[in-house]
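Researcher: Go.
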Amino acid sequence: MGEHILDELAHRLLEAVRRRGVKRLLIDGLSGFQQAALEPERLVRFWSALSNELRALGVTTLHTLEMPELIGADLRVPVSGISSLAEVMVMLRYVELQSRLYRLISLFKVREGAFDPTIREFEITAAGITVGEPFERVEAVLSGMARAALSRAATVAASSDGARAPSADDTGQSG
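Model: Structure:
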C-alpha cells in the first residue's frame, strides 16, 4: 500500500478538481508529496505527470515549496529536479536590514517571454498583497545578509590610499 500513496493522493486531487470544475488550484507545500514518496527519485516524474494532467484539464496551478532556511546564504531547491518542471518561479524571501525584517518578492524564472527580475518589497495587508518599489541601494539581498550598497563616492573615500577607484572609461594612458 505504501508505494501507492502518491498515486492515491493524485487520484483524489484530480477527482476533486473534475467534480468541482476547478480552474485555479493552490497546492500549498510540495513537501507533503515529498514525504509521501517512498522513492524520492520518483517525485519529479510523478509531479510532471500530475502537472500535465492538471494542465490538460485547463487548471492553472500554483505550487508552494518551503525553503529549508528562512534566512541565510543557502538558496537550494529542496526537491532536486523540480524546478525544471516550473513554468514560472517566484522567490519570496525575508531579509534583515538595519534591524528591520523585510519581505521580498522576485520572479526567478519565466519559461516563455521576458520578465522583470527586480527584487521588490511586498506587504500583506487587510486589503491583500501589495508589491512595492524595487528594493534598491541594497546588495546581497538574496543571500539573506543584505547590506546598504556603497555609493561610488563612498567607495572612493573608503580606499585606503585615497586614490581614485578605476572607472569603466579609464584607458590606462596618461595624458
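Model: The radius of gyration is 23 Å.
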